[in-house]
């Protein structure tokens, strides 16, 4: 079948992706003891590789074990044992797919129960109303902290290359540390890393420079940034364009455009609610497309968007709008063979697990629990269970995370 989604794509670094479909990063919370990938992670990634997705981007891997986005997360530092990461990369490449490691630092988006080191550009805590106490209180980073952080990103990227990953993706979106530097709401610094967007983006630019100085030229270096934070006075699409113009000058292979943060979770589809009646279906399903199209106008590197794609026709629309790669998270959790299945049946629609309870926060946590449950099932060699009970999945998830948080405390000590 000749869909544009199944045409290969060559990146600036020279690597070729077998098709235009990518698995977007999804934090698995499935690490083995020691915050490393184990057999269940290998099975999960092999399952995705066999399903025909051209590019697999891992869930975010932490550059510093003292700062985690969540329990059961993976840590890769300069002195980490590389063997489990080699096995992980190998499993994910079983079908000629490319595998990239997403690397991240959570900054202030750290659960208080996790503990560790909560850093941010300024000491501004997360504002989630009555839920704010669930997050740690950040301290403003010193100049030395910033230099060490830049080096950590470069060290983790180099280790990923040594382990056999074809590239890395720097997570500069969703309200994590780099995104905190980019936003004027969280970055109140008055040194060279704060103030105008040219200063706020200095951390991201320095990280990309440091990574490129350490890895090979044929190793892919990608960035995920928000097209906007969707918060009044926050990082907006003009800021995003300025960042893209600066990234144009560096050897960046792909920019993935997303949106939102913990305070404004647009990456879960909320941005689409403000879309107009005109072309609504497309907007709701590929909900960052309009922002991405506008920002992509200034980009010289390839662009990927992620959010809401479940049908081949929508993936093709994204490509027809000038976007190079279509990212999917949820759809590939519900059906890891979706690309191969589309080759046999181009009308197939991946199951949408969105929970629609009255309480929106609870619905979104339950939806995440249902999705993560599929990852755990595939890790055990089972098929996804698309009609899993949201309530049961939520309770199970909470108990599981509690246990993993306790295990992380032992790792920290
Ligand atoms: C369970 C889960 C975990 C996620 N973890 C990450 C992550 O580690 N890094 C990241 O950049 N995005 C993460 N995301 C966001 C996805 O990459 C994606 O942007 C979002 O789910 C919207 O795309 P979709 O509608 O295809 O799922 C996660 C999403 C889900 C559902």
Compile the SSE list and pairings.
Layout: E1 9-10, E2 16-17, E3 21-23, H1 39-50, E4 55-57, E5 61-62, E6 74-75, H2 83-92, E7 98-104, E8 119-120, E9 139-140, H3 143-163, E10 167-172, H4 177-182, H5 197-200, H6 202-214, E11 220-226, H7 237-248, E12 254-258, H8 280-285, H9 289-296, E13 303-306, H10 312-320, E14 325-328, H11 330-334, H12 338-344, H13 360-379, H14 390-412
Parallel strand pairs: 3-4, 3-14, 4-7, 5-6, 5-7, 7-10, 8-9, 10-11, 11-12, 12-13, 13-14
Antiparallel strand pairs: 1-2
Helix pairs in contact: 1-2, 1-13, 3-6, 13-14
Bound molecules: flavin mononucleotide.
Residues 24-27, 59-60, 102, 171, 173-174, 224, 258, 267, 306-309, 328-331, 368, 371-372 line the site of flavin mononucleotide.
Q: Can you describe this structure?
A:
The protein is an alpha/beta fold. The chain has a single domain, classed as Alpha-Beta Barrel (TIM Barrel), CATH 3.20.20.70. It has 14 helices and 14 strands. It has helices at about 40-50, 85-90, 145-165, 175-180, 195-200, 200-215, 235-250, 280-285, 290-295, 310-320, 330-335, 340-345, 360-380, 390-410; strands at about 10, 15, 20-25, 55, 60, 75, 100-105, 120, 140, 165-170, 220-225, 255-260, 305, 325-330. Strands 3-4-7-10-11-12-13-14 form an eight-stranded parallel beta barrel, surrounded by six helices. Helix 1 packs parallel to helix 2 (about 85-90). The chain is globular. Mean pLDDT is about 95; it is low at about 270-280. Flavin mononucleotide binds near residues 267 and 368.
């Amino acid at each position: 079948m000749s869909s544009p989604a199944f045409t290969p794509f060559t990146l600036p670094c020279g690597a070729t992706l077998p098709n235009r479909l990518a698995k977007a990063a999804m934090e698995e919370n499935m690490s083995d003891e020691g915050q490393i990938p184990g057999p269940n992670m290998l099975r999960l990634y092999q399952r995705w590789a066999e399903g025909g997705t051209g590019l697999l981007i891992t869930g975010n891997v932490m550059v510093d074990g003292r700062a985690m986005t969540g329990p059961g997360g993976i840590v890769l530092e300069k002195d980490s044992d590389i063997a489990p990461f080699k096995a992980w990369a190998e499993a994910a490449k079983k079908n000629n797919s490319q595998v990239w490691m997403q690397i991240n630092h959570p900054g202030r988006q750290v659960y208080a129960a996790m503990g560790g080191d909560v850093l941010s550009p300024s000491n501004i805590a997360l504002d989630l109303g009555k839920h704010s106490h669930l997050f740690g209180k950040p301290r403003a980073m010193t100049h030395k902290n910033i230099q060490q952080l830049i080096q950590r990103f470069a060290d983790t990227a180099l280790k990923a290359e040594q382990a056999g990953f074809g590239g890395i993706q720097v997570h500069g979106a969703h309200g994590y540390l780099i995104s905190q530097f980019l936003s004027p709401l969280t970055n109140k610094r008055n040194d060279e890393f704060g103030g105008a967007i040219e200063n706020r983006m200095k951390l991201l630019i320095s990280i990309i420079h440091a990574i490129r100085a350490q890895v090979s030229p044929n190793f892919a270096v990608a960035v995920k940034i928000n097209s906007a934070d969707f918060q009044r006075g926050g990082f907006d699409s003009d800021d995003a364009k300025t960042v893209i113009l600066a990234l144009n000058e560096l050897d960046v292979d792909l920019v993935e455009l997303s949106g939102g943060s913990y305070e404004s979770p647009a990456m879960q589809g909320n941005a689409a609610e403000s879309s107009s009646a005109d072309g609504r279906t497309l907007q709701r399903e590929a909900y960052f497309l309009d922002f991405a199209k506008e920002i992509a106008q200034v980009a010289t590197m390839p662009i990927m968007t992620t959010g809401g794609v479940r049908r081949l026709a929508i993936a093709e629309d994204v490509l027809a709008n000038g976007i190079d790669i279509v990212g999917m998270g949820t759809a590939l959790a519900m059906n890891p063979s979706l690309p191969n299945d589309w080759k046999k049946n181009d009308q197939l629609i991946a199951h949408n697990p969105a929970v629609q309870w009255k309480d929106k926060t609870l619905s979104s946590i339950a939806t995440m629990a249902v999705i993560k449950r599929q990852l755990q099932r595939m890790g055990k060699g089972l098929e996804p269970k698309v009609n899993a009970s949201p309530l049961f999945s939520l309770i199970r998830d909470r108990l599981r995370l509690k246990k993993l948080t306790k295990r992380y405390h032992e790792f920290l000590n």
